[in-house]
Amino acid sequence: MAFEFRLPDIGEGLEDAEIVTWYVSPGDVVERDQSLLEVLTDKASSELPSPVAGKVLKLSGQEGDRIKVGDVLIQIEELDPTPPRENTLQKNMEIEDTTQEKTVSNIEKQESFISVVPKVKASPATRKLARELSVDISLISGTGSSGRITNDDVRLAAESDERASQPPSPVVNIESSTPIQDRAGLGYMEPGEHNIKGVRGVIAKNMSAAWSEIPHIHSLDEVDASLLIDFRNRLKKVNRQGASKITPLSIIAAATVRALKKYPMMNGHVVGSPAEKIIIPPSVNLGIAVASDSGLLVPVISDANDIDIFELAERISELVELSRDNKISAHQMQGATFTITNYGSLGGRWALPVISLGQAGILGIGKIEERPVVHDGKVEARPTLPIVLGADHRLIDGDVSEAFKNSIMNDLLEPLNLLVTE
Amino acid sequence: MLEAINETLHSEMARDERIVVLGEDVGRNGGVFRATEGLIEKFGESRVVDTPISEAAIAGSAVGLAMAGLVPVAEIQFLGFSYQAMHQIAGQIARLRYRTQSRFESQITIRAPFGGGVRTPELHSDSLEAQFANIPGLKIVLPSTASDAKGLLTSAIRDPDPVLFLEPLRGYRGIRDLVPDEEHIVPLGKANLIKKGDDVVIISWSYQVELSRRVAESLEGEGISAAVLDLRSIVPLDIEAISQIVSHCGRAVVVQEAPETGGFASEIIATINDECFWSLEAPVARVSGFDVPYPVGMLESLYVPDEARIRSAVLKTMENG
Amino acid sequence: MAKPNDKQLQMILEDMVIARTQAGRLWNLQRQGQVGTIAPIDGHEAAVVGAVHALEPESDWVLPQYREPLGLRRYGPEVLDTFMLYNLGHPAGGHIPDPVKVAPSQISLGASIPHAVGLAWGMSLKNESGVVLVFFGDGASSEGDFYEAGNLAGVLKAPVILFCINNQWAISTPTHLQTAADSFASKAEAFGIPGVTVDGNDPSAVYEAVFNARKRALNGKGPTLIEATVYRLGAHTTADDPTRYVPSDELSAAQEKDPVHAFIKDLTDRDLWSDTKQKEIETVALEIMDDAFEKAKNTPLSANSLMDHCFVSDTSRQLRQRSFLMESMGKSNE
Question: Looking at the domain assignment, is residue A294 inside a domain?
Answer without folding.
Answer: yes
